[in-house]
Amino acid sequence: MTNPLESHVIMTEPITPDQTDGGDSEAAATDAAEEDEEELDPTEAKVLKDGGEVRDDDPTIEGLRNINSLASWTVSTHKPTCGVTALLSPAPHTYWQSDGPQPHTLTIHFFKLVHIAKLRILLDFSKDESYTPTRMQFLAGTGHHDLCEFGGWEGQQPVGWQDVPLDGCGVGGGKGLRCFLVQVRVLENHQNGKDTHVRGVQIFARDERVPQIREDESKHESDGSGMEMEEDQAPRKRGGSKGRSLFDLKGLGGLDEPDWMKDPVVR
Fold first, then answer.
1. pLDDT in tens, 12-26
2. At 173, phi and psi to the nearest 5?
3. How far apart are CA 70 and CA 81, in angstroms?
């Protein structure tokens, strides 16, 4: 029996002569496969890849790291097997399906203060139809008692990742969001559907290790060997104070920073 959850996965294995009745059947199957490939929506192609997993090689998330695992996730209601586990699964055929009155809420509570640089939601109107959200509201704060709306989203037939605007959320009107808690509220669905389908949510923060590594590499190239440096030319610490600790002089004869002193890494 064919698993209905895997019915949409694109098969890339070539058709062998043993699987066909003859040359004509093989040619017909090849033509049909080419037609299916041409009819695949380009937006949907960005969502799927071999094996049916969500793509992570998106150039828009370069220099960012996923912080989903740094939070506890709860939903207002859900159908059996269609809760948080299905929502956070990398497979695009799994989703969160609500089971109650609107608005449907998704609450993301981080265990520490985070600086969110990017927030996006995976929707697919071609598969969910009336379950597809058309209007959502986004709130953030330090807890449930001080939630404030920071943005909204509206769309008619979305397919793929939908970016949540974060412009003006930072200090002084900058881009970015600092908070402990984020809440997503689904206010309306397509054709006034009752329950909703959300296929994925990803939250990203700036990967501070990327510019630091590039800065160190550029300094090594400009200083040559980098072993004999004057005190005035010594690199600064991250906080801007004079000098740099032995741990920051890695590669210049300093000590390696132990794992327990590093920032937590999402695996």
1. 444 444 444 444 544
2. 80, 15
3. 23
